[in-house]
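dude i think i finally got it to work??
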Amino acid sequence: MLAGIGIHRLATDMYGEGKQALHPEDAKAFSSAAHVKISTLAKARFVGRYGVSEQQASVDPTRIAAIGYLYGRRSGAQHGGAK
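look at this
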């Protein structure tokens, strides 16, 4: 549906190692660890995924945005201007 209206999307494993939060407490623990202990790595992951999107022929690099819920939103807000 999103691709049909010209929106390219990319999911990012911001927690690392394929971790999935099945409970809000898990999400809190994973995001805290990623933010506090490996914030440099989290930024590198975000910037790396941005670069992948930027190189896609179907993507206008002047119109890239980051969206997310909770940790994804925080990561987008913190690293969105980083390149």
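Residues 23-79 form one domain.
im so relieved honestly
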